[in-house]
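Researcher: Next entry in the queue.
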Amino acid sequence: MPRLKPPWPPPRRSRPRRKPWPDCGTIWPPPAAADAARIAAQTARSDRDAEARDRQGREQRLGGLTRARDGWIARSKDSGARIAALEKDAEKTAALLKQAEVAPQGFAEQRGKLLDTLTAAEQRKQASSDAMAVAESAAAEAAARPPPTPPPPRRAKPAPVWPLEPRLRPRS
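Model: Structure for this entry, 172 residues:
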């Protein structure tokens, strides 16, 4: 069987191969003094970083505490003003409560006056209804009766003659 070529190109190397390092006269492994200095530098850097983290943490906590303290002071001032407003409201409410306790008596008195007025109005209404019924019945009776006949016309009396009729003479 013949060998086939793959349809894709072969992979390429991403970087060229390294050449071995030239001998520069370095000593490997490094001497113990250099190792101790490197360890001391690393320890100093870690101590410095730890101190910076601690300082930053303290500054953040201090800033948070300062903001909290300022917030509490502001809330204290606001609550003082609110307490004063609530005390004023309590006084107003107490005055309104006293008025409300007296109100039922006034309502009862006003209700009695209104009932008296209503009773008087109903009596006047009944009296006017009765008078209206009497007037309507009188009008109905009058309409049922034949109209009255007019009286006969008066005759004129003859003028008196003074010398002839002494009885009709005016007295002096």
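Model: DSSP finds one helix and no strands in the chain.
Researcher: Noted, moving on.
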